[in-house]
Amino acid sequence: MDAMAEIRQTFFEECAEQLAELEAGLLAIENGEADSDTVNAVFRAVHSIKGGAGAFCLDDLVHFAHVFETTLDEMRSGRLDSSEKVVKIMLRSADALADLVTVARDGGTADAERNAGLIDELKGLVALAKGEEPPAPTAAAGGGASDGPVYDDGMGDIDFTPVAVDLSDLMGIGGDNKFRIVFKPSPRMYAKANEANRVLRDVYALGEAKVSCNTSEVPHLTAIDPEGAYLTFTIELSTAEPEEKVREVFEFVEFDCDLSIEAIHDAPDGDIEADDPDIAEILARIRATPDDEPTPAKTDEAEEEAPVAAKANQPEPEPEQAKAAPQPAKPAAPSAPAAAKADAAGDGKGGAGVGGAAQTIRVDLERVDRLIDLVGELVIHQVMLSQRAYQAGLARASDVAVGFDELEQLTREIQDSVMAIRAQPVKSVFQRLPRLVREVADISGKQVRLVTEGEWTEVDKTVIERLADPLTHMIRNAIDHGLEKPEDRLAAGKAEEGVVRVAAMHRSGRIVIEISDDGAGINRKRVKEIAIKKGLVPAEANLSDEETDNLIFLPGFSTADKISSLSGRGVGMDVVKRSIQALGGRVSIASRPGKGSTFTMSLPLTLAVLDGMIVSVGDQTVVVPLTAIIETLQPKASEVKSFGGDARLVQVRDTFMPLVDVARELGYSHELASATGGVAILVEAENGARSALLVDGIQGQRQVVIKSLEANYGRVPGIAAATILGDGRVALILDVDAVVATSRVEGNFFNSGMKHAAE
Amino acid sequence: MKRTILTIDDSRTMREMLKVTLASSGFTVVQAEDGQHGIEVLEGMEIEPDVIITDINMPRKDGFQFIEEVRADASRRAIPILVLTTESDAEKKQRARLAGATGWIVKPFDPTKLVDAINRVAA
């Protein structure tokens, strides 16, 4: 069934949200930042999961969620303290619940042993909260009735579900069942929108019924309370249905009326009540409900103005009708006040019923992407149009030109707004981190506190999705390799508990995520030894601290002597680096011995557009991402030094940096361009390495729509992506990091060592 | 004329499930996401719903508060309100009843019983 499959998907989506909420709430409780709203939200999260799981018959999930929910309910009602021990159990239960959800969605088996253990622990907490009873009463569904507090309606010991009494031994089996039903509605019943006539109709539906109505209690017209209830119905029913069916009719009203249902034997004598202890007991209990003398009942149940409204609708009821007045009057009444209300609330939201307070809508991602694509095309065409107009001789000061400017402005705004639709806070990724940290900490035997900052920082959805893996790996790495064991930390004069801090922020049009730990920092001596042993750098290499730190990003580098199951899966930091680079991002490391390390990832906010400088290279046009550019200059002959083959350095003030001939690098020309003929664009890679890119000239600066080259053609070294320019031509977007890295390979022996090792 | 049901549940899963069930039985479904939203939607409706189905546990305003608020308006006493409860919520059923609920539906609900319950309380 399509609809069910869709709902199922919704359910799992919702589960993910609820689980995130659950964990966030529990963590807040752990940190002592929780108020009652948090506890309620946590309870609701589990409750919701249970509700949905029930609909899909996910019994394991329902059972676990039920026990969990029961425990949370104790916390919610204040009987269970949110001590560290309690919260830890709950956090582990949340993890188990998440696993059960995953199993329910993807198949597989849950860790039954762990879950059973947790269920025992949870039940233990409930027992603790309730005094010192043995942990048992939390069994599955159904047992709740007796646990519930007794309410003042005198019915506390009777479940709200219909009371079924087996009277089969009193009845002739199979034959026509006959019942005498005495039914006296109370005003309360009408106040809850139940109506005698509907109940009677349902009784009729069961078989043959004779109804008589006792009107003797109807007062004089002047004394009549329009919301009162004065009628008593006596029904003689003969039906093929069993008594349960008859009782079911009164299911919703049984507590709001005087009701007796008696099975009648062939000779109806009507006095069974006293003979049968069961019925007598039931009746006694039912009678114990506060009786509905019209007057006191009115003050309980009715609003002061209510009778007026009802009277207005039925000014002169005949006694007969008046008895039934609450019924017909009610349905008629609402329309008028409701209309008045709609008018009164006519501040713009009067319209459709669904309108209301909906703050968000859910949109298929494909639609958004289609829109983004179209807006991208719109931007290109807008630029093309104005370019052609100017080429055709449009005066810059003309009205049309002003119109073009405005159009450009608007197009930009549309583009930004459309991009913003895809932007999401990184919270969704950050939410998964606490569990990761707990698990890694458990396995590695380290004590870790996770601190997250800037979780509301927004970035494109695709970036978020692809952020999770590298981030996960870097955090594992930070705990596994960065933080010391508790005893070592104590020996080093640090707190036993290590801190891993993950912070997101916007910085110059990019999102920057820092993962820092207060561990031992990178052991540079060791790193260098390994790199030399593995032939990644020549033994005589003289490396700066920064260069040494960055060795860990080299393919095939792994500092762990034995392969750890944590950082494992054969994924090294080189893969992390590559996956970040594939996103147009960069990663760098800063480490201080004994103090810890900080990994910094910097990613574009969106994968759809980029601010670039349009430059000419040979007969081609190339886009250099603006974020990488520091400055542009025209090198003088005296500032350019050649050495060893084609390698050149350019002097910028008091430093030298490699001068990269972009045309040659990209294979547009084979000859080395004259350094003085062009423009040098000073760029900086994410690791801080700088190079000067030699191009023929600068055309301008504009935002370009990124078209993936990999998706449409294939990966080209040195090229990040492609774009379509205003005049319709395709231009390539330079991968600055790659070009800078290559230039430095040629530029110094350390990197050439790296290059050889990589080959 | 098609009957209109206002369903109030903070769970998207439940809302969709109710919607599919009810729509396939020929009801018009109006949805709200919690008690507060339910009140707002109710205020905005030109014609009162024939039946309201509400969850109990919800943020901002729970089902009890919602029912009490609806019943506090004398003109809305005639709207049948069914409560969605889980089997283990006996205590909640009672509270809902005291607040003014017309009847209840046990979660997870059986579509036939749900429709049956609606037909029993709808005018």
Automatic annotation (TrEMBL), chain A:
Q: Which residues form the CheW-like domain?
A: 609-745
Q: What does this protein do?
A: Involved in the transmission of sensory signals from the chemoreceptors to the flagellar motors. CheA is autophosphorylated; it can transfer its phosphate group to either CheB or CheY.
Please provide, alphabetically and separated by semicolons, the GO molecular function terms listed in this UniProt record: ATP binding; phosphorelay sensor kinase activity
Q: Please state what the protein is called.
A: Chemotaxis protein CheA
Q: Where does the record place the region Disordered?
A: 287-355
Q: Which residues form the Histidine kinase domain?
A: 356-607
Q: Where is the composition biased (Low complexity)?
A: 322-345
Q: Which organism is it from?
A: Jiella avicenniae
Occurrences of domain HPt (ranges): 1-104
Q: Which PROSITE patterns match?
A: CHEW (PS50851), HIS_KIN (PS50109), HPT (PS50894)
Report keywords, A-Z. ATP-binding, Chemotaxis, Kinase, Nucleotide-binding, Phosphoprotein, Transferase, Two-component regulatory system
Query: What's its EC?
Result: 2.7.13.3
Gene Ontology biological-process entries: chemotaxis
Q: Looking at the keywords, is Amino-acid biosynthesis present?
A: no
Q: Which GO terms describe its cellular component?
A: cytoplasm
Catalytic activity field = ATP + protein L-histidine = ADP + protein N-phospho-L-histidine
Q: Which Pfam families match?
A: CheW (PF01584), H-kinase_dim (PF02895), HATPase_c (PF02518), Hpt (PF01627)
Sequence positions bearing Phosphohistidine? H47
Q: Which domain of life is it from?
A: Bacteria
From TrEMBL, chain B:
GO:BP terms for this protein?
A: phosphorelay signal transduction system
Q: Give the Gene3D superfamilies listed for this entry.
A: 3.40.50.2300
Give the coiled coil ranges: none
List of residues that carry 4-aspartylphosphate: D55
Q: Does the keyword Cytoplasm apply?
A: no
Xref: InterPro entries:
Bact_response_regulator (IPR050595), CheY-like_superfamily (IPR011006), Sig_transdc_resp-reg_receiver (IPR001789)
Entry keyword annotation includes Phosphoprotein: yes
Keywords associated with the record: Phosphoprotein
What name goes with this protein? Response regulator
* Species name: Jiella pacifica
